[in-house]
Amino acid sequence: MSTPGLQGPAEAAGITLLELLLAVALLALLATLGIPSFQRQLASSRLSAAANDLGSALALARSQAIQKGVRFTVCRSLDQSECDTGARDWSTGWIVFQDDNGNRTREASEAITLVAHALPADITARGNAPVASNVSFRPSGEALQAGTLRVCSSAAALGDSHRTSDLILTNSGRVVTVRSSPVLSTCPNPT
């Protein structure tokens, strides 16, 4: 005789301990496979963002030089108000300014158009000799110097063939972005 409201073993709802352990193991396996891919995507996105920021600053300086008919300069900056003439490292940030006297160094009277702060710790940006500390554009839009700025990530998640974006500045003032590979995680200077 069955009692109303009570269920037998065949009608019990819920999951067993074995089913729960299997689900947890499957979730752990999926997370193990997915996390490295996510880290690689995150590192790649940070690299692209840094390269795009620097490329955009160069494009802004060029367009402002053409539009206003005066020289504009992009230079490395430690304090986001003066140009840094030290090592080739653009990772500390940069500024775009109207270079009224054409000396490629910002004077107090020269207006800053853009300020970019330091890059993330695992991203470096360095220029070869012609663009080691600044890039300047004439009112015609031409660059005073041609060179290469390398934006590089030392993130372990990226392989040597995916860790850089080189911004190649031509004499015409145009910037071409290419991936150079392979590049070691030490992120050497461009040549």
Main sheet specs = 4 strands, antiparallel
Given the helix and strand composition, which structural class is it? alpha+beta
Distance between the termini: 90 Å
The CATH topology label of the domain at 16-70 and 119-178 is minor pseudopilin epsh fold
C-alpha Rg, in Å?
Answer: 27 Å
**Oligomer state of the chains in this structure:** single chain
Written account of the structure:
The protein is of the alpha+beta class. The protein has a domain at 16-70 and 119-178: minor pseudopilin epsh fold (3-Layer(bab) Sandwich). 27% of the residues lie in helices and 21% in strands. It has one helix spanning 17-68; strands at residues 72-76, 94-98, 112-116, 123-127, 134-137, 147-153, 164-169, 175-178. The chain has a four-stranded antiparallel β-sheet, covered by helices on one side. A four-stranded antiparallel β-sheet has the order 4-6-7-8, with helices on one face. Strand 7 (164-169) and strand 8 (175-178) form a beta hairpin. The radius of gyration is 27 Å and the shape is elongated. The N and C termini lie far apart (90 Å).
